[in-house]
Write a structure and sequence with these properties.
Number of helices of chain A: 9
Helix content of chain A: 25-40%
Distance between the termini of chain A: 56 Å
Number of strands of chain A: 13
Shape of chain A: globular
Largest interface: A-B, 62 and 63 residues
Structural class of chain A: alpha+beta
Oligomer: homodimer
Radius of gyration of chain A: 20 Å
Chain lengths: 309, 309
């Protein structure tokens, strides 16, 4: 099956929405503009076989993960995702059902978020599959949340439970689009980022962009079951180290006025009873990232990795 | 040098424009919306080492080609390109200067077209470099040109000279953005497509989308010097076959009212004295693609390849 036949087979099943004037099948997709008062959001990301997934990964999960990563980035700006395009690198003699299943996973997640998949290319990639996604979103000009708005005294929150994502969650995570939209309506964050490199690393991006520091409370950091499991293995990281440094959590990390912390936790519990939300520390004027434990306060190393005794 | 250091080095040099609210460095780029009455255009494309360029290709040319392919697609809709994001797949131990030069070529072409490069990712790609670009453009709602508008009786035009692109032009072609914008202002095409798969193949896409056929005049097809050179080689295609079937010309193929053919050719010569424009045939009600030569009219095979005696 050549590229054209494959595309003919995939195009009728692509997720669509009311903004699409014409999708795949012309030189470009043609799309309705966003409403007045909205910014465009634009993001690209890619997953590579052997790096972000393995030859054994369920193909639906590959499509889910590739799109989910971009959705998570749009969520981190408090935006709504709209349109995606896909570049799929395929080795020779690729299996057509596998490619169709990659698209099944991608389309399913797209439909959940009313995202239209409006085009794509397949290219030869001799050794391994890669899947590059670009996503357009929108956000109200006065609601866009950057990394750079954190203020001393802000409370620091994180959704979900962290660490050990590679045990499985990195393939089936739910990007926090709905949660971010609810936040921006009810408790507008000062700064927000999604966790892809690990809590310590991504928090440092946020702190650097905001020109502030932070103190984390070790006992408040929500640790995933997978991270606890792995900590029992002889060579495993401690569970706290995993929660601080494992990548691909795809949770939201955000800051807001300390005074709003308790009302937020209350309201969140009612609105999202199945999704954990934790206040894990505070923003400080003193730069750098510190961790408060029973033993005292220690500085986290610049690379985000900390070796716990 | 790790990914973060590399990005720190590249970001200050990225092409920008007045539409950028915030570019690389946050979870998404934030961009001003397009003016009322405009559609968004959206396109992605990728180039892969060993497929679209070789390890010996000048790195600036890799960046130029990757972006140029997307610009050519925006041109084919008569649009203006605005914002690009980049995903760069890099083998371990990549050479930093080579990556910087890829971006130099990309930024140079972006600046020529006032395109902002607003973000990107680098990912591990163990065996070979790949470069995936996604591009947002805009076009007036009443000026957008699709593949599907060709009408029987239309004259068929192509810019430039065709064939033999792999001898070098595929790496330094100039996407026909300015020409397409001029066309849509002065001689609005009924249908347009850019030539990436070869004249015969891309014309068939246009014919299929429009539900029409075409007759090409063999003697009118503009043949590049590279195609003529290669035809002299013992194993070479004939020059006409090369012009019909070689890929990566990145010229514009379009149709308009037959009555406008002569005025267009006149005005074009004044406006673009250095760029060839050829009327190469006409659109017909009878489906299929035919070639008129001295010996008569023959049908071109479905795969676009024709073996000339």
């Amino acid at each position: 099956m050549n590229e054209f036949d494959l595309i003919q087979r995939l195009v009728p099943h692509l997720a669509t929405n009311a903004g699409v004037v014409s999708g795949a099948g012309d030189d470009c997709a043609v799309l309705k503009p966003v409403e007045p008062g909205m910014y465009l959001l634009f993001k690209t990301d890619a997953v590579v076989e052997g790096v972000h997934f393995t030859p054994d990964t369920a193909p639906e999960a590959i499509g889910h993960k590739a799109l989910g990563r971009c959705l998570s980035d749009v969520a981190a700006m408090a935006g709504l995702p709209l349109y995606a395009v896909v570049t799929l690198g395929l080795p020779p003699n690729f299996e057509v059902p596998r490619v169709e299943q990659i698209y099944t996973g991608l389309n399913r997640l797209a439909r959940q978020h009313t995202v239209a998949v409006v085009g794509g290319e397949t290219v030869a990639s001799p050794e391994r599959i890669f899947l590059s996604i670009a996503l357009i979103g929108k956000v109200e000009m006065d609601k866009c949340v950057h990394r750079s708005g954190a203020k001393p005294g802000d409370a620091l929150f994180v959704t979900g439970r962290l660490g050990g994502s590679l045990a499985g969650r990195h393939l089936d995570f739910e990007p926090r689009v709905t949660e971010a939209r609810w936040l921006v309506e009810h408790f507008p964050p000062h700064a927000m980022i999604d966790l892809s490199d690990g809590l310590a690393g991504d928090l440092k991006h946020l702190l650097r962009a905001s020109g502030v520091g932070a103190e984390l409370l070790a006992s408040a950091i929500p640790i995933s079951r997978a991270a606890r499991q792995r900590a029992k293995e002889p060579s495993g990281k401690t569970a706290l180290a995993a929660a601080l440094t494992d990548g691909e959590d795809f949770e939201l990390l955000f800051t807001l006025n300390g005074a709003e912390a308790v009302p937020l936790l209350d309201r969140w519990k009612q609105r999202f009873p199945d999704t954990h939300l934790s206040c894990i520390g505070k923003i400080t004027q003193i730069p750098g990232l510190r961790l408060r434990t029973k033993e005292g306060v220690r500085t986290l190393a610049e690379n985000g990795y900390v070796h716990f005794a």
